[in-house]
Amino acid sequence: MALLTGSLPRIPLPQPSGAGGRFKEPPSVVALGGGHGLSASLAALRLLTSELTAVVTVADDGGSSGRLRRELGVLPPGDLRMALAALCDDTEWGRTWRDVMQHRFKSAEPTEASLDNHALGNLLIVTLWELLGNPVAGLQWAGALLGARGQVLPMATVPLTIEGDVFTETADGRLRTETITGQSKLAAAGKNCRVHDIRLIPADAPACGEALEAIELSDWVILGPGSWYTSVLPHLMLPQLREALCRTTARRVLTMNLATDTKETSGMTAADHLDVVRRYAPEMRFDFVLADPGAVEDRDRFRQAAAALGARVVFGRVGTLGGAPVHDPLRLAAAYHDIFGGNEEHADA
Fold this sequence. Notes:
- The protein is an alpha/beta fold.
- The chain is built from 14 helices and ten strands.
- Helix 1 packs across helix 14.
- Its main location: cytoplasm.
């Protein structure tokens, strides 16, 4: 576990009554995802617990991460870097190192061989990997340097590729099927496209052993929010990881996005998102589905889709006040706080 420093107060959780209470204080939580969605979840969860593990997708093939992946044959560090930055403490030390990790170089005359657009955090992580020869150890050292409230782990020990079949609407209204390879291209499929099926390459890649152990020992597992096909679903498609998620005694929460009709999920409703989860992992069961009421079009249909996953719906206002589809860390933390503490006043409201 990375070192815990700083003075940011944690929100105390209600204690279970009786000697047989299930969860300790603080609870052990594993959050899975990637990119901005996972960062939002971690920014909220670090207010509730220091026993926090982020399990991060390793399929990015664009930008700085893609270049390092191609040139050095390493795991793409970008989503891992963002998770570490999200766990930085809210102190001068933490904020400074967060900004250092996220800093990008801007070259006057960029070339493919220059530092242009490389994030310094990506270079730091890859440096630690090369020095230590171990991705997990490198991330632990990076977390210790940042004073991160928790640890960050890759979902797999080898880089993954996401491949998807996409329906594209032609000018005359017909549907054409094409295969798109790569997370960055799939995530930008576009409004005239709809992702139909995705695959991981290699399909049987080994999961990170430390991630499997963290899931087994956790009290709560949080999946989402995030890009549904490229950050959320991959965790359910890696055989060893899916088996661990199904086998764990932890309670499971699926956190919905604030916007459903994205480039990656064009034309999909909130209920469709749940149906896709069930299609890719029919044996997977959740205890709760957390959703902002403004992002659910048909509540009855949504409840039915959640029930098919074994879950109860918890509606909560978890978005920022500005109207942009961005999770507010304090509001999201309050929603998780209520769920963890057994306060189901707003469940299925």
